[in-house]
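== Item description ==
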Amino acid sequence: MEPIRFSVVSSNCNNTNGPRLGTLTRSNYRIDTPAFMFYTKSGSVPYVSREVFDKILPNDQVLFNHPLPTNLNFYETLKEYNLGLNKFVGFENYFCCCSITDCAVETRQGFNVKDKVAIKSKSGNQLITYERYMDIMEVFKPDMYVTLCISNTNLDSVYSAIEKSVNISNRLFHSCLERHNKSETLKGSGVIAPIQGGYNVKERIRSAKYLAEYNDVLGFLFDGFFTDGSTVEDIPCDIVMPVITETMEYLPPDKMKIIFGAWTPALIIDFINSGIDMFDSTFPYLATENNCALIFDYNLKYKNNGIILSIPDNNSDKNREKLNIYEICLMDKMYFESFEPLKDGCTCLTCQKHTKAYIHHLLVSNEALGPILLTIHNLHYFYQFFKDIREVLFKNKHQQ
């Protein structure tokens, strides 16, 4: 199988790292970056079928992220099936990535044993060695995957726990890569090296330096910033950004940089300006889980070697008491007689056919169609946000 490759198309700054356009390619299939992976549970995008998903983004660039905890129970079936996870779940025409943790739910701490990583599956916690993990990857056959690691660190983690996560993750990475290089099944798959270290810059740099010595990786994942999906939105920019920017200096510029989690659009722009290429769709997924629709207006422009995001003050409905510049909660009774689409001008299937009042009715009635319609809108809106980001970088490229 032809290996998957990442290449930088243009870097829009004078420094080594900064906002850039890139491509992830294999044969005739291509993903332009900055972009995001579509978050899945048990091999499916939550709330929407394969047929509905195709209508959300017909004939467009798609990359799925399959977290191990929600797919681990497929192992024995896929071993017999022998055609890989993406084929099994009906997404064989798209790229897929396998990651270690489910970023949308709480990651329980304290269950790892030495070099065994605790994975919480439907059948309970399972301790995974690197040998078993690589057996799983050979059965799943992903286009890319994150090597086994310890990532359950956050703002409250003590130094000893952070140091331990780096030491163990580095050992596991080395063992996984050795096994990868001997595997005929995975020779076309890309390896993602996980950078650990919590919020300790010294440990982050130590992790980055060790992993950067290996040239045969597809990219690097900034991991271990949080242990709970919903709390990511509250992490202050001035705490996480220095860790990212200082660590980035020790990574090769030609490799893909990834970060997962429900980061806000403002932080996503900051990450892109620091050189991050790939995200995931945890943010719109959690918005749907909270019965919310993404509605933020935004202006993007390129200035001073970076993208500037401005969000006008008219993003929230005038009658709302609590301002949330990114989303509205459709459970609010104020939408009982609101016969407008979720967002004026939005071209998604939900906004073309349905009103806030109808979706409010579906949600308060606990109808399954409610989160389906919210998912269609939120994924479409988030995807358009990234398309607009790429367009700003593309225009700047041609103006240079």
Q: What stands out?
A: Residues 5-289 form a domain with the TIM Barrel fold (CATH 3.20.20.105). The mean pLDDT is 91.
